[in-house]
Write a structure and sequence with these properties.
The structure holds 2 protein chains of 2 kinds. By secondary structure, chain A is α+β, with helices and mostly antiparallel strands. Chain A has 12 helices and 14 strands. In chain A, a hairpin with a 2-residue loop joins strand 6 (135-140) and strand 7 (143-148). The longest helix of chain A is centred in the C-terminal third of the chain and has 18 residues, at 251-268. The chains are: A alpha+beta, B alpha+beta. The complex binds flavin-adenine dinucleotide and FE2/S2 (inorganic) cluster (2 copies).
Chain lengths: 271, 150
């Protein structure tokens, strides 16, 4: 299907994107890689009045490591994360998770910032950023502010970003301790039915598609911190979650899956 | 909106609505109907083209996003001296039946071989997971891509 008629402006820097959002109001939408927004527009589930195309904002692209912090521009593609030698050394969990998103064509165009701002509980990268304890930088008309990843996802497809804010940078601590990502799906290129990301040998654990937002598995993290083995820690993985029921699985099956996947991920991460 | 896209080495300029998908721009404005459209959900890959050398689903990209970019479609793959090695390998390995998926499959495969070194059969299957074929059962497609990657 063809999207509904829409206005279009190009914003080739973060500053231009903020200005364009301010000018065009609440119904304007940022366009990054378009790999979530364009499918929604084709189904007419999204009908923005104006697209603010920030796809050429080179100031928002790139990965740098400074001391113990990794900084990634919001417009950095999944494919750039997947192939980055610096990221493989400083934060291998994120590089690996990026390689598990969709298919190569989606990874060439889709961006880290777009994946986070879209805030889909079934997406891979938000869970990785949560497990790693990332910090997101949002820039609006009044300047920039930092939002902890654990405060960023506020509801199904909803984030803490205001409608006139642009997500510009993601900061992550360098993280080379034991890590793993378990993504369970049954169709090629599909989203996870359930996924589990583990950072730093179990100090950070997060869950994909186990509720209306990506979730941090606090009970598992506490169990690992308290010295529990992988199997005992994984037993509490579904605690406090309200997993969805859909065509792929019902909630009870997801609760079973998340315990199995958490145990596998903890073992792989050396917990 | 006026867009100017280098398609198969030629600069093509047209006036398009912002909502025009790249796939429709290629097919309807430029008459390049080798790029097929097989779904409404960005899942089949029949529309795959190269944008600045890397595979992209042209149904999941707006023509305005391609302004200034270099796009290669299946029509632009063969050179002076005949078929591109990937096209030749598809021909020799009998990697197509009805042919509907083939343009997208070939473009995705060209990008895949360029992006990943040391591909084995599993790597090819994973790398082409965004391209669906209803006819071949994939066996000969994997064979062709491996043959062309050598
Ligand atoms: C076939 C297919 C398979 C996929 N499979 C997976 C998968 O397995 N796992 C997975 O995680 N994802 C998957 N995806 C989604 C993909 O990862 C998207 O790339 C990603 O979700 C969105 O990034 P984008 O840059 O394309 O954002 P866009 O589609 O451009 O934007 C998405 C939303 O975020 C907003 N936005 C974008 N950038 C910013 C910013 N910098 N600041 C503020 N708001 C912003 C937009 O306004 C829009 O609302 C798949 C997509 C497709 C088409
Ligand atoms: S037409 Fe099916 S993915 Fe583009
Ligand atoms: S050859 Fe018919 S769909 Fe692939």
């Amino acid at each position: 299907m063809i999207p509904a008629a829409v206005g279009y402006v190009r914003a080739d820097s973060a500053e231009a994107a903020v200005a364009a959002l301010g000018e065009h109001g609440d119904e304007a939408k940022l366009l990054a890689g378009g790999q979530s927004l364009i499918p929604l527009m084709r189904l007419r589930l999204a009908r923005p009045s104006v697209l603010v195309d920030m796809g050429r904002a080179e100031d928002l692209r790139g990965i740098s490591v400074d001391g113990d912090t990794v900084s990634i521009g919001a417009l950095t593609s999944h494919s750039a994360l997947e192939h980055s030698v610096e990221l493989a050394a400083a934060c291998p969990l994120l590089a690996h998770v990026a390689s598990q998103v969709g298919d190569p064509a989606v990874r060439h165009r889709g961006t880290l910032g777009g994946s986070l701002a879209h805030a889909d509980p079934a997406s891979d990268l938000p869970a990785a950023v949560l497990a790693l304890g990332g910090t997101l930088v949002a820039t609006g008309p009044g300047g920039s502010r930092e939002i902890a990843a654990s405060d960023f996802f506020t509801g199904f497809l909803e984030s803490a970003l205001a409608s006139d804010e642009v997500l510009t940078t993601v900061h992550l601590p360098v993280s080379t301790g034991g890590w793993a990502y378990q993504k369970f799906n049954r169709r090629a290129q599909d989203w996870a039915i359930v996924g589990v990301a583990v950072a730093e040998g179990g100090a950070g654990v997060s869950l994909v598609n186990m509720g209306s937002t990506p979730l941090r598995a606090a009970a598992v993290e506490a169990a690992v911190a308290g010295g529990a083995g992988a199997s005992d820690a994984a037993a509490v993985a579904a605690d406090g979650t309200e997993p969805p029921t859909d065509n792929n699985a019902d909630g009870a099956y997801r609760e079973h899956l998340v315990r199995v996947l958490t145990e596998r991920a903890l073992v792989a991460a050396g917990a | 909106m006026e867009v100017s896209v280098t398609v198969n080495g030629q600069v093509r300029t047209a006036d398009v609505e912002p909502r025009t998908l790249l796939a429709h721009f290629l097919r309807d404005d430029l008459g390049l109907t080798g790029t097929n459209i097989g779904c409404d959900t960005s899942s089949c890959g029949a529309c795959t083209v190269l944008v600045d050398g890397r595979s992209a689903k042209s149904c999941t990209m707006l023509a305005v996003q391609a302004d200034g970019a270099d796009v290669t479609t299946i029509e632009g793959l063969a050179g002076e001296d005949g078929l591109h090695p990937m096209q030749q390998a598809f021909h020799e390995c009998h990697a197509l039946q009805c042919g509907y998926c083939t343009p997208g499959m070939v473009m995705a495969a060209v990008s895949l071989v360029d992006e990943y070194s040391d591909l084995d059969a599993d790597g090819v299957r994973e790398g082409l997971e965004g391209n669906l074929c209803r006819c071949t059962g994939y066996q000969n497609i994997v064979k062709a891509v491996l043959a062309a990657s050598e």
